[in-house]
Amino acid sequence: MSRISTGVKGLDKMLNGGLIPGRAYLIKGGPGTGKTTLCMHFLMEGVKNGEKVLYITLEEPIEILREDMRGLGFDIDSPLFVGIDATPVKEKRSFFEGMHYEEFAKGFTELVRAIKERLEEDIFTRVVIDPITMIRLTIKDELDYRRTFIGFLKEIAKYNVTLLMTSEIYGIDIEDYLVSGVIELRTFEVGGKTVRGVRVLKLRGSNFDETTRPYKITDQGLEVYSEENIF
Amino acid sequence: MELGVPKLDEFLGEISEGSVVLIETLGDLGEEIIIEALKENKEKSVAFVTKRLKEELGRIPELKNMKYIVFGEDFAPQELFKITYKLRQILNGYLVGLFFLQPLLVFHPPETVYKFFSEVSSITHDNRLVLIAILDKRLIDGKTLAMFENASTHVIEIVEELEKFRVIRGIRIKKSPKGSSGFYELIIKDGKVTIGEPLG
User: Fold this and answer.
1) What is the ipTM metric for this complex?
2) Full-model pTM
3) Which of B71, B73, B78, B104 is the best residue to mutate to test the A interface, defined by the most A CB atoms within 10 Å of its own CB?
4) What share of chain A has pLDDT > 90, as a percent?
5) Residue A223 belongs to a domain
6) Min distance A226 CA to chain B CA atoms (Å)
7) CATH code for the domain of B88
């Protein structure tokens, strides 16, 4: 089975070689755990390979993100990196052609339509939606959300892209069952020190390292210690 | 590899790569054995130390240029992976002095420190290193001590006895591939370790 790198060597080892391409994955974790940084590693790995990649931000304005990611040494200004700002910064901010935040807030289907249009315009191999927590809030009924989310994954699957979505929701949720893999980033506070641990909760079609492994956020991004244990 | 303490080397023989030598002692009595070993193998030695100990060892001329890996004494158990990670980077055949078990046992549960030691032992074996660690046996119970011994290939025990007002220090080989020994007098003078006559 072919694999694609997450851009983080230690995490690839935990995933038994990397992610299985063409599938959807969820990156879970609280604020400051490095979800966005991990997604950037994933996209930049694609850029390094000459692939066109798509990043959709629903919370953090893209300019702030670009600035932060430049600081970590990511080639965020590469023409192969397409960033879409879908944050509700300004009233009626247009982020896809003919679409506004309010419209998106009214329906997940609007976002799906806009992403599909973008995927038809260009050939992307890697896509990130950061985070999906916002999408969740647009659909109150759980069954409706589940149905819509499955529909979304099916639509995206047609484009043969590897999709990473981030979520701030702890514990098992609907998305965990529907995606092909779940990676959780956690922090532990011990004696005033923050210690970070990464765990692969699920990887359909492959075995994986089930141990929580320590990781650090350095000035070059995420570093996962795939052979070490948290004692 | 030899420790540089004549009689101990005679008892232990050549310590092969992949060995873990545990010194069970009281306080830091016998730390000098690790220091002798580091001096003896100074070209291929690394010491995991606290800041205080680095300053002390740095004053010994032979150890001035040795490689030190320094950690604070208030090390959280979740950060112990930093030691195992550094240990994996050390080249085959190196001698590693681990002066870290004492402060760890003061701050953290013995089971956690044992798990860490067991991992360290396994890396030492896999990477063909020689590791010497010192452990204050008063900080753990007999059962945990037995587990530490189990994770070691060589165990050196140091004891202290009072004879009237005279303190007698004894040393013995508790476990080694060459077998064990009885107690001998341990004399430490001006940082120099000498193994004296048999005791008892």
Assistant:
1) 0.74
2) 0.83
3) B78
4) 58
5) no
6) 10
7) 3.40.50.300
